[in-house]
Amino acid sequence: MTAKPQTDIERLNDRYRSAMMSFYMRRSVSRSDAEDMTQEVFVRLIASYSGEVENVDAYIFQIAANILRDRARKVKVRNSDMARQNLEDMDRVDLFDPSRILLGRESLRAVSKHLDDLPEKTRDIFILYRIEGLQQSDIASGYHISERAVRKHIAKAMEHIMRELSNEGQGG
Predict the structure, then answer these.
(1) Is the Cα torsion angle 92, 97, 99, 103 positive or negative in sign?
(2) Quick check: 151 and 129 in contact, CB under 8 A?
(3) Please, what's the largest Cα pairwise distance for the chain?
(4) Distance (Å, whole) CA 124 – CA 139
(5) 8 Å CB contact between 24 and 68
(6) Which of the four pLDDT bands, split at 50, 70 and 90, describes residue 144?
(7) CA–CA distance, 3 with 30 (Å, rounded to integer)
(8) Are 118 and 126 in contact (CB under 8 A)?
(9) Comparing C-alpha atoms, which of 7, 170, 145, 109 is closest to residue 137?
(10) Of residues 136 and 50, which shows the higher confidence score?
(11) How far is residue 169's CA from residue 172's CA, in Å, rounded to a whole number?
(12) CA gyration radius for the chain?
């Protein structure tokens, strides 16, 4: 049995598949989405490829960039639709529902309890950012630290609170 000669598309697939995957994943696309998008590149290529393209590299990566732009547009539309739906849903919610107020107070009490476990500086930075709404740059100036350090304090506080709340939810 003789081996079947590779078609142009198979050769292009062998040559470009890993480059396409890297192209998408460097742009924060998940591996499974990168697979789907890479497959879409080859579907579009099959639909339009005549074998007479001067610069195949540029052609394939132009298709890849177009797919990335299409995906970004779809996500933007989907997110704006979801935001609109959320606003419509909020119109139907009774903001002064007693059960919501009770749940909110209990949640606040739980978070507050876990804030007390944090080092004072981390707790204060978290409160200034999350509760008082100060900008990270303003907090950094006030504490004479970098914005990166402010972000680390906030992340440390969030991680601690989430871990403790998760432990409570598991009965621990």
Answers:
(1) positive
(2) no
(3) 77
(4) 10
(5) yes
(6) very high
(7) 35
(8) yes
(9) 145
(10) 136
(11) 7
(12) 26
C-alpha torsion 111→135→84→30, nearest 10: -80
pLDDT digits (tens, 9 = 90+) for 78-109: 777 777 777 666 666 555 667 767 777 777 77
Angle between helices 147-169 and 136-143 (to 10 degrees): 110
Residues 155, 158, 161: CA angle, nearest 5 degrees: 150
> What is the CB-side half-sphere exposure of residue 28 using CA atoms within 13 A?
1
Give just the sign of the alpha carbon dihedral 118, 119, 125, 131.
Answer: positive
How far, in Å, CA of 41 to CA of 47, rounded?
10
State how far Cα 156 lies from the chain centre: 19
Q: Which two tokens stand for residue 85?
A: 């739906």
Number of H helices, E strands in the chain: 7, 0
- For residue 70, give the amino acid letter: D
